[in-house]
Specification:
The structure holds two protein chains of two kinds.
Chain A (H helix, E strand, L loop, with lengths): L3 H4 L10 H15 L9 H22 L1 H13 L12 H19 L3 H32 L4 H29 L1
Helix pairs in contact in A: 2-3, 3-4, 4-7, 5-6, 5-7, 6-7
Chain B lengths: L20 E6 L3 E8 L2 E4 L9 E2 L1 E4 L5 E3 L1 H4 L1 H4 L4 E3 L9 H4 L10 E3 L5 E5 L2 E3 L1 H20 L9 E6 L5 H13 L4 E6 H13 L3 E8 L4 E9 L2 E10 L4 H15 L7 H20 L2 E6 L2 E6 H25 L9 E5 L6 H11 L12 H13 L9 E3 L6 E5 L3 E6 L7 E7 L9 E7 L9 E9 L11 E7 L5 E7 L4 E2 L1 E6 L5 H11 L7 H31 L2 H18 L4 H38 L1
Helix pairs in contact in B: 4-5, 6-11, 7-8, 7-9, 9-10, 13-14, 13-15, 14-15
Classes of the chains: A mainly alpha, B alpha+beta.
């Protein structure tokens, strides 16, 4: 089966042109979505569903920076990044604790504005981390080899920020009832 | 022997036929059917000119079934045998619905399907059967209006469901259609249908929010319309919140004013009817004089606004969550479309307008907009508009998961994932020689199984016996374009397909549906055997037509001469056999064509994708 980049006719690259990606999604689904075969034969309906499933799945991977980075790492180095990752970076571990603590305090105080500001802070950290990961992938061209352990750690950091954002939203929901 | 008809190359084998398709809005309070005629989508009226069919079914002692306004007449005189708001029972468990006051305690009972059933004299009727009665009346209405001859039928229907409906509720809706003898082209979400109805009018690109407050459900969907593609970005809502709650809260006020006994069911029914009158009249008036039983007095809009306000606030909370899920902010919403009769309530429009900081769109009758959108989609799906590029991309409304140790839910597919989608999971055996295992599939967002909806228990059998932990069972959860779940399992080291037995938690098994289909057909009127034969012949001609069209389209390009001939001869074989009366032979001839054209179908998909990507690159230059 084709990898997600190949399926969308894209070069395997971490940087992504989002409008181009969604345009390709639309064009492909116009051609193979099950609705196009609603009065077709059972085989066609089945094939359309399977193909659309593949496209939707690949789109989900490409759209999410974490999953895209994992897929690209797998493609370039054969390392599966979806399993457990041990992070030894003490600075990051410290920061992780601090962020969790801040979230806990804000939710205990039911501080809605504080949570919103906190979410913005994490979002900008997330943006920086995405740029950071891109830099690591770019290094391949200069050094000809990717440091997969290093990239795994960076992906883990991004994943942590995403998880924190989800938890902030859950805390907001809880306050609103 | 009949002569084969051979068309000139490049000519289609049949002149273009207009096929009849309809869109059905199967609502909690009212149902509608619409169709596209001469390019215009419109709802269809009954002989008296009514478009709305009240979703009420009455069963008389002599077995007569009445639906709609004629059933409504029995609501006060024979409440025990009159069923309204049956949609609220679809795909739910008895415990879920016992709190709903429309159904008195003695009216609802347990049934074999896990769903509650309604006691009608000595008989019980399940919600699927009751809904099928409504669908039959609507289909009949369409056949009359379209002048479809006796024996011929609607080619297919699109039925709308609340976006927030879970798998069991969707499956129940599809089963009802099957029992009513309808061919379901697709289940689509009500808000998506409404967007289609509006979008075609305005051709408006951008992000739209659809606020759909019906009788019994509330839905909010965020859609992006771009170049004819409607992409649902997120959907949310509450499948147990609706305009009926307004009526109930007003009825509560009336009952309190009139000092009615708590268990006076008839008085309660009357209060509900009166409450609806009061609500509707307060849409245009600031206050209204009310007489209910021994009580006479005035009710003001302000008074009921205060009562309704918390219900509307709940809907706005769901809006907030859904906009966030879509990764957007309220300011990104270009237009807000109002759907559902309950959005006529002035306070709803006012509060929604305030929240989105803009005037909501109400130009299409909110009662009819869903059916109209469904009709447009049905017309496209049946193939009447082959060049139309409108495409709906929908999402899974609620996360799918499986039960793990300690009654916890492990999410498999998160909500708002575009469908169709599939995910695979690998399991292993726990004991030596284990040949079976059970999977409990759950739908919902909470962490505990008990807080989510139980969809079904799948039992896998036929796993080859191995030592514990050696078997690798890959379970695939496939959600199709209707939002319905299918589960497949295979033992990967041996390639053995495990047999799956599905026990829906709140639904009918396939054989129960077939049983009901059989019993719903009046045997004096029509012979079952004949009906099955006709259905199989229709299916055969559909297959022949579809495969021929595909062969003509790109069979030469994608198949070797040998492959082409194999498919063509299977099709010819099917054509001959379909003229006979052997149902089993027709079935196996269809299977033969399917088997021969499987590879062709997937090559066609690949070719379409290649073409779509090339087209894209040209666009960019």
């Amino acid at each position: 089966m084709k990898n997600p980049f190949e399926l969308f006719g894209l070069e395997p690259n971490f940087l992504l042109n989002e409008p181009e990606l969604s345009q390709k999604l639309r064009n492909m689904l116009q051609a193979v979505h099950p609705d196009r075969f609603a009065s077709g034969s059972d085989q066609e309906q089945l094939a359309a569903m399977q193909k659309t499933t593949q496209i939707n799945d690949a789109y989900g991977i490409l759209k999410s920076p974490v999953r895209r980075a994992q897929a690209l790492l797998q493609l370039k180095t054969g390392v599966d990044g979806t399993g457990e990752v041990t992070v030894k970076d003490p600075m990051f571990l410290m920061q992780q604790l601090e962020l969790r603590e801040e979230l806990e305090i804000l939710s205990d105080k039911k501080d809605m504005n504080g949570l919103l500001a906190f979410a913005e802070e994490i979002e900008s950290m997330e943006k920086k981390q995405i740029a950071n990961i891109n830099d690591f992938f770019q290094q391949e061209d200069e050094n000809h080899a990717l440091d997969s352990d290093k990239i795994l750690t960076e992906i883990y950091k991004l994943q942590f920020l995403r998880k924190t954002l989800i938890d902030i939203e859950a805390a907001e929901e809880k306050i609103l009832g | 022997m009949a002569l084969l008809q051979i068309a000139e190359p490049g000519q289609s084998t049949k002149p273009h036929e207009h096929k009849y398709a309809a869109g059905i809005d199967l609502g909690t309070t009212n149902s509608l059917i619409a169709t596209v005629r001469s390019g215009v989508a419109e709802t269809l009226a009954d002989l008296e000119g009514n478009h709305l069919l009240p979703s009420i079914v009455h069963y008389a002692k002599d077995g007569t079934v009445s639906v709609g306004n004629s059933a409504k007449l029995f609501q006060c005189s024979d409440p025990e045998n009159t069923v309204s708001s049956v949609k609220r029972l679809m795909g739910r468990g008895l415990a879920d619905v016992q709190a709903i006051k429309e159904f008195s305690a003695n009216q609802l009972t347990a049934s074999g399907s896990g769903m509650p059933a309604v006691q009608i004299f000595e008989d019980i009727k399940n919600p699927v059967e009751i809904s099928a009665e409504i669908l039959k009346v609507l289909a009949q209405r369409a056949e009359n209006a379209l002048g479809i001859q006796e024996g011929d039928e609607l080619g297919g229907v699109v039925i709308t469901v609340p976006a927030y409906f879970d798998d069991a509720q969707r499956q129940a809706t599809k089963d009802a259609a099957q029992i009513a003898g309808l061919n379901v082209l697709r289940l689509i979400n009500e808000p998506t249908a409404a967007a289609v109805a509006y979008g075609l009018d305005t051709g408006n690109e951008g992000i739209h929010a659809i606020y759909d407050l019906g009788g019994g459900t509330f839905d909010i969907s965020i859609l992006r319309l771009e170049k004819g593609v409607y992409e649902v970005l997120a959907t949310g809502g509450d499948s147990a919140l609706g305009g009926d709650d307004f009526d109930r809260i007003i009825a509560g006020l009336l009952v309190e004013k009139a000092n009615v006994e708590h268990d006076d069911r008839q008085a309660y029914q009357m209060a509900m009817l009166k409450a609806r009158e009061v609500k509707e009249s307060l849409t245009d008036n600031e206050s209204v004089d009310v007489q209910f039983m021994h009580w006479e007095g005035q009710i003001s809009r302000e008074q009921i606004n205060e009562l309704m306000s918390p219900i509307i606030d709940k809907t706005l909370l769901a809006c907030r969550r859904t906009i966030k899920d879509a990764g957007l902010k309220p300011a990104d919403i270009k237009e807000i479309v109002m759907v559902g009769g309950s959005t006529r309530v002035p306070l709803v429009q006012e509060k929604v307008g305030q929240y989105f900081k803009q005037e909501p769109l109400t130009s299409i009758d909110p009662d009819r907009v869903v059916a109209i959108g469904a009709a447009i989609q049905a017309d496209i799906l049946i193939g009447n508009k082959s060049n139309d590029q409108l495409l709906l991309l929908d999402v899974l409304p609620l996360s799918l998961g499986v039960e793990t140790m300690g009654g916890l839910v492990e999410k498999i597919i998160p909500r708002n994932t575009p469908i169709p989608i599939a995910r695979a999971q690998e399991f292993t055996t726990f004991k030596d020689g284990q040949t079976a295992m059970a999977i409990h599939v759950i739908q919902g967002e909470r962490e505990l199984v008990d807080d989510c909806r139980s969809l079904a228990r799948f039992e896998l059998r036929g796993i080859p016996p191995m030592v514990a932990g050696a078997a690798r069972i890959k379970v695939t959860y496939q959600v199709d374009a209707d939002g319905l779940l299918n589960v497949f399992a295979v033992e990967t080291t041996s390639g053995v397909q495990a047999e799956i037995q599905v026990k829906p938690s709140y639904g009918l098994t396939d054989s129960q549906v077939t049983e009901m289909l059989k019993s719903s057909i009046d045997k004096a009127e029509e012979d079952m055997q004949l009906r099955m034969l006709r259905e199989e012949q229709v299916e055969a001609s559909r297959v022949v037509e579809a495969v021929r069209a595909a062969l003509e389209d790109n069979g030469q390009a994608l198949l070797s001469e040998e492959e082409f001939d194999a498919i063509e001869s299977a099709v010819q074989q099917l054509e001959i056999i379909a003229q006979g009366t052997d149902i089993e032979a027709i079935k196996s001839a269809i299977k033969m064509v399917d088997a021969n054209s499987q590879e062709f179908a997937s090559r066609r998909m690949e070719a379409s994708i290649a073409k779509a990507l090339v087209g894209n690159e040209i666009d960019e230059i």
